[in-house]
Amino acid sequence: MTKTVKVHIFLKPGVLDVQGKAVEGALNGLGWPGVANARVGKLIEFDFDGEGDTQAEVKRMCETLLANTVIESYRIEIG
Q1: Where are the alpha helices (DSSP H) in 1-53?
Q2: Angle at CA of residue 76, ends 73 and 77, nearest 5°
Q3: How far apart (Å, rounded) are the C-alpha atoms in residues 2 and 13?
Q4: For residue range 38-48, what is the model confidence (pLDDT) as tens digits?
C-alpha cells in the first residue's frame, strides 16, 4: 500500500540559521518588527510503497541521506 511521507528537516537549536536570520531581518525591515527567531527548514515529500515498518524505513532514509544529523533534526509524518 502506497503511503505519502513528509520529512520536515530543521537545523538543531544552537546552530546558526543564516537563512532564518535573513528572513527575520527582511520581515522586520518590511514592517513586521514582532518577527523573531525565524528558522528556515526544508520539506521532503514522497510516496513510499515499501514492505514492513514504514516509520523505521523512513528513519533509515533520514539517517543515511536526507538529514545531516550532526546539525539537523527531522520529523516524519506518514499519511
Answers
A1: 18-29
A2: 150
A3: 34
A4: 999 999 999 99
